[in-house]
Amino acid sequence: MAVKTTKQAKPQAAKPKLAFYWAASCGGCEITITELGMRLVDVGELVDIVFWPAAMDFKYTDVAALKDKEIDICFYNGAIRNSENEEIAHLLRKKSKLMVAFGSCSHLGGIPGLANLFDIETLLERVFDTAPSLDESRGTRPQPVNKVPEGEILIPKLYERVRPLADVVEVDYFMPGCPPVVDQVWTVFQTILAGKLPEKGSVIGANPKTNCDECPRKKGESGMRVTEFHRPHQVELDPERCFLTQGIICCGPATRAGCGLPCLTANMPCRGCYGPPDGVVDQGSKLISAIAALVDTDDPQKLDQILEGIADPVGLSYRFSLADSILSDLKYGKQPVQEQELA
User: Fold this and answer.
1) Cα separations (Å) of 204 from 112, 138, 158, 192, 279?
2) C-alpha to C-alpha distance for 257 and 313, rounded to whole angstroms
3) What b/e readout covers 327-337, taking b as 16+ CB neighbours within 10 angstroms?
4) Are residues 18 and 189 in contact, defined by beta-carbon separation less than 8 angstroms?
5) What's 17-112+162-193's CATH class?
């Protein structure tokens, strides 16, 4: 009697496990993920998202229960502002094979890094004591421990210094942008799934050149000389001319390319969110150097008048990179993150 046999189905390969986390940032990076739209469904069929608290009901205990290195790739967005940010960075680093600094805040400190211009007491005083309010809560500051009938409520300790992710854990790849543009994110996902990532330590989803290298705007036949600086809202912007020739500060000369130039296309100058290009250590000083080379005067008095047209030079030059700058290192030194309780 013949025995009928059936072919055994081959076991399916395990899907790569991804994690997304949101630390000290605005949440724009999370929105970029959702803006993948139907492509996010395609990603969901190819990977398992094992941690994404911004979109799903995950707990830190879920991550702690995973085996070490069980997460294939973690996309960590946001700077290190407090003890919770750092604690989860260490936890996710322990559980992940690859850690990606996702977006400007984890890459360079981002907008939160501008807080490094001030001390903690100045920040707390402004936010909780003097800022206008619609209620009577002025002067009330959060405490690290609050006792309630159910027990104690603990809040994270605020650090004196904002730091990029790489200052507290090892980072394998850096993905710049505020936020990274959707097409860039999709390209990186495809690269990851194809197993074609570059060597560790690389910037992914961006280009080594500057936005100036890719910008199609006309530079002007007579050269780029500036005798007066303006803010964008003060003049009518020519959509075809280089912003710098119009006396408008554009961060293009000191900013990595790869965003697709959405700001320039919308007739607004580059803000610098993709950080410095290859070979540039300090984005702010590179921009200041580029601007200084354009000023058209040798008269010290006229020079002062021209420079007065630049509002907030530090905030402008280091909008996204102050926390990862020479200025922050000079102020704080190379010491570990200093904890300070909210008082």
Assistant:
1) 22, 44, 31, 10, 16
2) 22
3) bbeeeeeeeeb
4) no
5) alpha beta
Residues comprising the chain, all counted: 343
Residue limits of CATH 3.40.50.700 in the chain = 17-112+162-193
Residues 169, 93 contacting (CB under 8 angstroms): yes
What's at 59, amino acid-wise?
K
Sign of CA dihedral 173, 175, 176, 179: negative
DSSP 53-78: TTTS---HHHHHTSPTT-EEEEEEES
Which H helix or E strand runs over 184?
helix 182-193
Q: Which two tokens stand for residue 152?
A: 């104690």
User: What integer pLDDT is reported at residue 296 of this predicted model?
Assistant: 82
What's the CA gap between 322 and 339, in Å, rounded? 19
pLDDT, tens only, 74-111: 999 999 999 999 999 999 999 999 999 999 999 999 99
Which residue(s) pair with 152 in the sheet?
147
User: CA torsion sign, 156 to 161 to 163 to 169?
Assistant: negative
On whether the CB atoms of residues 107 and 59 are closer than 8 A, the answer is no
Residue 218 near residue 240, CB atoms below 8 Å: yes
> For the whole model, what pTM was predicted?
0.88
Asked if 324 and 272 count as a contact pair (C-beta separation under 8 A), the reply is no
Amino acid at residue number 3: V
CA distance 167 to 147: 34
